[in-house]
Automatic annotation (TrEMBL):
It catalyses: 2-phosphoglycolate + H2O = glycolate + phosphate. Its cofactor is Mg(2+). It comes from the Bacteria. GO terms for molecular function: phosphoglycolate phosphatase activity. CDD domains: HAD_PGPase (cd16417). Pfam families: HAD_2 (PF13419). It comes from Methylophilus aquaticus. The active site is at residue 11. SUPFAM superfamilies: HAD-like. This is Phosphoglycolate phosphatase.
Length: 229
């Protein structure tokens, strides 16, 4: 089955870039500065994907269901932001990402990056990785009033680019991406190498899974006979 789409939207962390090593380093430097024990990178990776505030809270408590002390959280935020600003651009693209984006661009697809990461980290990361120029739009976690899993970011991109949600696909690595895409009425394709809070994605929830992004061109078909919404 091939999906007829005009717009391909990508998640960032765990889909385009392997950001976990730098996020874990920054988080552990934050914890050390607060006099708390460091955490394994594998554990911190399970906290990625639902925004930086949730990441920091989970590092402080070790439990997604527990809120940290408000004063401690207020102290932790600037520490994490400072440490992550210093190393964020060291993150590397996953194998095949650049080649996939080049191929999609050559075939005429519009592309956007839709992430829950704050803009002050998103834009330098994309630029340093050489990916920024591929995207007609970049929506970060603080660009709009709501972020994924709410469909607003995806619908905003579709509306701005004058493309129907049914002519768009969201490519991501997590249940957050799946929920946003399904609520927006877009197709959803996932990769298995990302983070997804440490859980395996249920293949029954998605339209397709690819091992690398270079496989996208075998799934997508530009709808030459479909009108733009």
């Amino acid at each position: 089955m091939r999906f007829q789409v005009k717009l391909v939207m990508f998640d960032l962390d765990g889909t385009l870039l392997d950001t976990a090593p730098q996020i874990a380093e920054a988080a552990n430097r934050m914890l050390v500065a607060l006099g708390k024990p460091m955490l394994p990178q594998a554990q911190i990776s399970t906290y990625i994907g639902e925004g930086v505030q949730n990441l920091i809270k989970r590092c402080l408590t070790g439990n997604p269901q527990v809120e940290p002390d408000a004063a401690l959280f207020a102290q932790a935020q600037p520490l994490y932001h400072g440490f992550y600003t210093a190393n964020a651009t060291e993150s590397l693209a996953y194998p095949g990402v650049l080649r996939a984006l080049q191929s999609l661009q050559q075939q005429g697809y519009q592309m956007a990056c839709v992430t829950n990461k704050p803009e002050k980290f998103t834009l330098p990361l994309l630029k340093h990785a050489g990916l920024a120029d591929f995207f007609a739009m970049v929506i970060s976690g603080d660009s709009l009033p709501k972020k994924k899993p709410d469909p607003l970011p995806l619908l905003h991109v579709c509306k701005t680019l004058a493309i129907l949600p049914a002519q768009a696909v969201m490519v991501g690595d997590s249940d957050t991406d799946i929920a946003a895409a399904q609520a927006a009425g877009c197709f959803v394709v996932t990769v298995p190498y990302g983070y997804n809070q440490g859980r395996t994605i249920d293949a029954a929830k998605v339209d397709a899974t690819v091992q690398q992004l270079t496989e996208l061109t075998t799934l997508l078909e530009y709808p030459l006979n479909m009108q733009t919404g």
